[in-house]
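User: Watch each token:
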Amino acid sequence: MSKSNNSLRKEFLANKENKGYRHAYADESLNIAIATQIKVLREQRGLRQEDLARDASMTQPMISRYENVNYSSWSLKTLKKFALAFDVWLDVRFRPFAELISTTEEFSRESLQVPQFEEDPFFKESDFVAVRKKNEGTSKAFQTQGNLVQMLKVEEPCSALMGKSQASFDQSAPPQKVSTIGREESARVR
């Protein structure tokens, strides 16, 4: 646990009887994260506020307001419009406060970027896409064949698998041992 992460944990512990404190912190973090991610996604796609306003059926002043970290009147309807405009899905979940602390620690421009559907590596034509499941030491891989997607547990360290570029996954690579629903088989990484 990093020093700032530990410091925030201590703050929460010192105020553990104050439910309002942690919820105010969560609300502020949520507002900052949403506003910042809207701006990051807009810039990632090379859009001006006017362009995003058009794509989301809004006005430019509305986009400016939504990109302000002090804005706090979010609605699911508005967030769904942004999801459609950015061509991503909206994920709304109830989470433990421990995740708020780790999310705060990991907050960065890179952590807020999300590829739109057509740029998502999972949906590229390649036969194999590797993804790392957060907070787990195992690697997950998805092998695609036509419309069939099979999730595979790859018995190679996650860091080794994720460190490979798409180009390094080729036919000449040695087969990797993978487990699929209780049986073992070999799979070539393309």
About this structure: The first helix runs from residue 3 to 14.
